[in-house]
Write the structure tokens for this entry.
Amino acid sequence: MTGNLLHGWRVEEYGRSRDGVALRAFFPEGNSPTAGLLVAAQHGEEAVTALLARRLLERVSGDATRWVVVPVANPDGLINGTRQNAAGVDLNRNFPATTWRADDSFTYPPGIEPERRVLENRTNRSSPGERAGSEPETQALIALIERLRPPLVLDIHSPLELVLPLGDVPTRLVESLSLAAGLPVVEALGAPCPGAFDAWLVEAGIPGIIYEVEHAGLPALCARHLPGLEAMMRSNGAL
């Protein structure tokens, strides 16, 4: 992601994964205050979210935005094609929110058909970690956020096709993202997510948006989702 297609971006290693892979954040050149943080690929099985983040870095020059981008929050999972990191931990169940639980979590297998998304089919088993915040990827992302104190975090996932604002998110921005991609705005997910990244954000006083894209090929995903996300980054979240 550091080739000639990326203009105006400065790459910083903000930590290392469980398997020692560099965790990288892309910063706009200059010293302007951060307008927001975009995070993708917390789950390695959701590789399309990393590809969307890559396309955004290509389309939006670093000198045209004040957003910071973490395109791959879970490189071990992305490399291995798994939801979890190299230790079998679901990073989105490992954050030190008050909701964290020591019990294993169960999610749907990747690619499951929408009509089969019923409780008995939640068979993808993950550990929440030995303790809240146990994983190096979690610790590094927390440290990055505490350093930046972004006024907004956009967390890209797949495949639920929705926009879920959490905390004091600007209404106009939520409406703009929803309208641009034809995504419904919801108030909650359909299943509990103890120790979730976004729950920790809310408790830390940082508004967040869960942005879920569908299962689809990259051209279709780019056509549907990049216009709204690009506009958000160019406007620095002030839509």
In short: The longest strand covers residues 9-16. The helical segments are 47-59, 75-80, 136-148, 171-181, 197-203, 218-235.
